[in-house]
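Researcher: Structure prediction, please.
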Amino acid sequence: MRDYDEITAFLGEWGPFQKVIFFTLSLIVFPTGFCGLSIVFVGDIPEHRCLIPGNLNLSEAWLNRTIPLEQGRGKLQHSQCRRYRLGVIRNLSATFADPDSINMSEVEQEPCLDGWEYSKDQYISTIVSEWDLVCDNDWKGPFSMSAFFIGVLIGSIISGQLSDRFGRKIVLFGTLAVQTGFGMLQVFSPNWEIFCILNFLIGLGQISNYVAAFILGLELLGKSIRITYSTLGVCCSYASGYMFLPLVAYFIRNWQFLLFTLSLIGLLYIPLWWFIPESPRWLMLNGRVQEAEAILRYIAKKNGMTPPAVLFNDLELEDMKAKSKQSHSIIHLVKIRKVRAITIINFLMWMILSGVYFGLSLNTSNLHGDDYLNCFLSAAIEVPAYGAAWLFLRRFPRRFSLSGSFSLAGIVLFSIQLIPSNLSVISTVLVMIGKFGIASAFAIVYVYCAELYATTIRNMGVGMSTTASRVGSIISPYIFYLDTYHEFLPFILMGSLAMSSAIGVLFLPETVNVPLPDTIDQMQTMNGCIQLSWLFFRRWLIQTGVRHLGLFKCRSNDRNHNQFNINETSGEANVVLTIKCPHAVHSLLSMNRVSTVTSARWTRWTAVLEAPTFIFTKPVQ
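Model: Predicted structure follows.
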């Protein structure tokens, strides 16, 4: 029976319609590049110190000594959270004209009871200076970004299920409306609490919009264009939006004007509703065959193709209707053993990937050099990273491409601790190389994850994977707080996690040159590294056991029972094995020494051989 790609082959791969969809869906991803990461400038911490009231009548010399000096970042600087007790300073200034004549280290200190004064050299205002998110309240700045990612987490759960149930197009534009509307309202936040609530609501739409655009593009475009779309299309559009952020922030130094300007861009996408159709693949799998056929004929007309008189035969229609009646929920991601293994590895990989990516992205203001230039470079490095991902996806297996990207990021980030403190420029370069590796992994993982899951649960699988990644995103604003314990601990942590992901990826199935699975049953036919490793291990174990009989010992409580009997006349060993592993079964069948196979039975649902018994002979050496 034909699959979706075979049914729609008459449309062509790269006609006028596909070109319009490629660029419009890529363009719709542009705002997601700056929506979340705007906190880099909106929530940046300006230089600040305790505010000294102007009614103290202190001399210039005493005003300059009201703030104690402390060691920070390898140098002496004015304290940002403490000041000398003003009552004591007033009395001392009345007695001593020169503050150098007394030992200031013995003067009692107090917190900034009158608030703070902030430098305006770089910013007119940020949310930090607006609501004094410093010192005892310094946790509120990173939490503003964590609130955004909590919204993304909840939004991924909701949008994934809604998209599979109600369609890709509605969720795509619905999440864009949420992102744009609440972004405008955020400008009028009266306090930090309202700002966080609105940031949470914006998070409901941001990455959910990205995932919906990604999935819709995969289902509307042909096989040969999907990799280009998911890397050079969607990812480069995201990177362009990211690069757009520091350019706008450089000229708009007020956080309210900056957010409002960025939010207005979302209104430009309203006309695209009439250019982007619903996914025919989704319509067919949900039993709406006539709507899918109408869209396919419209695409054929745009491409100048003549569609066949009958797009689907009766058997294919019945099969699609049967599939449309299948109800799939989140439980199907973990219900079957093989799908469950894929889901668990995916979740862990996405959490680490997102934590490292956003940890590096949010730390650009702490790197050596200009904040705006560092942010732009951090965004610009993603463009060649996505180009590299495109080449990897076209020429190499998915697993090794993703594992190699993780390895590059892990090795480079782990090596930063070896760079001397006086060579901070080299550290910045290594951070950018690490960002290159992790961005490349991000581009590959979207393609790989979408290919791993069946159509019936694909949007849910990708959506739940991005949901799991939000755990890493939520933690990412706090990763660089670890430098209070050790200067390089954040980079050591991120490098180690990236390397662990590089190893974990190798246990997923390979999807290169494999048709996209439409059903969960088709997912179970995909072979993974775990299975192949187990197959070779069983082959080696059996061969070695026959050669060295002492390695096999029969135990009544063993799951796999083995018995060896030596025929003294012929010098042959009769080996009886009761094995439940189907891959060992295939291994034995491929060997020419199998003489008898008994007690083999396939279960209906898991297709696993239960307790097959093999008897084969080999001369004893």
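Model: Residues 192-220 form the longest helix (29 residues).
Researcher: Thanks, that helps.
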